[in-house]
Amino acid sequence: MRSCHRLLSCLGFTAAHLGEASVLSSSRLEACVNDGSQELSCEMKMVLTVTLEHGQQETETAQFLVREVKDEDERTRTLKKPWQVSWTKSKAFWRYPLRYVQDVNNKPTEGTIEVGWLTCNDNPKSNAEAITCNVAYLGGNRVQDSEGFCCGCDGADVVAGTATRASLDCGLFSWSDSAHCLNFDSLWYSVYEVDRPQIFYDV
């Protein structure tokens, strides 16, 4: 990992380096422009850009011997008195932002309700009160296809004695329907996505 920092001075410098950290640096001598973003009382300023390698476990220190600087014409100027710049970086820590996705049920199951013949309603276009099963809602919105489905007796079941999904009584004079509903467990889990980490440390 690397982090970049910019140091400003009303003098100027570029750098050789020593110390415990791996450092890449560059510097330029620029004219001071008072654009209102900061208080400046100089004609020229030096901008030093430093990239400091860092790990997570140990603190790091770095020292810079500032000997030269390039001006706006790319000419190298040597300082009469070299400057020394040093800093210390604290241990870094990573924070992983969590983004909520949705809640999921622990163990949804199928439940059945036996109703009279031709009285089961699983029409998704019907309102919730008219549907035989209880429809599910998520975030105030009705969940698609949560109205379940209906099964019933027909002539073939009566003649052949075929077993139905809910073991309905399909006798000659006792037809019925069954509603197959989505039942939820009392335990729910919240699902989150882990985003890319953000790195924090003090310099």
What can be said about this structure in brief?
The protein is an all-beta fold and 203 residues long. The chain is 3% helix and 51% strand.
Write the layout of secondary structure elements.
Layout: E1 2-9, E2 14-19, E3 23-31, E4 44-53, E5 60-70, E6 76-89, E7 93-95, E8 98-105, E9 109-116, E10 137-138, E11 141-142, E12 149-152, H1 155-160, E13 176-183, E14 188-194, E15 198-200
Antiparallel strand pairs: 1-4, 2-5, 3-4, 5-6, 7-15, 8-14, 9-13, 10-11, 12-13
Order of strands across the main sheet: 1-4-3
Q: State Rg.
A: 37 Å
Largest beta sheet, briefly?
3 strands, antiparallel
Number of strands: 15
Q: Which outline best applies?
A: rod-shaped
Helical residue percent band:
under 10%
Integer average pLDDT = 75
Structural class per helix/strand content?
mainly beta
H/E topology pattern: EEEEEEEEEEEEHEEE
Low-confidence stretches: 1-22
Number of H/I helices: 1
3D structure, described in words:
It is a single chain. The chain has 203 residues and is mostly beta strands. Helix content is 3%, strand content 51%. It contains 1 helix and 15 strands; from the N terminus they run E-E-E-E-E-E-E-E-E-E-E-E-H-E-E-E. The chain has one helix at 155-160; strands spanning 2-9, 14-19, 23-31, 44-53, 60-70, 76-89, 93-95, 98-105, 109-116, 137-138, 141-142, 149-152, 176-183, 188-194, 198-200. The strands form 6 sheets. Strands 1-4-3 form a 3-stranded antiparallel sheet, with no helix packed on it. A 3-stranded antiparallel sheet has the order 2-5-6, with no helix packed on it. A 3-stranded antiparallel sheet has the order 9-13-12, with no helix packed on it. A hairpin with a 2-residue loop joins strand 10 (137-138) and strand 11. The two termini are 15 Å apart. Mean pLDDT is 75; it is low at 1-22.
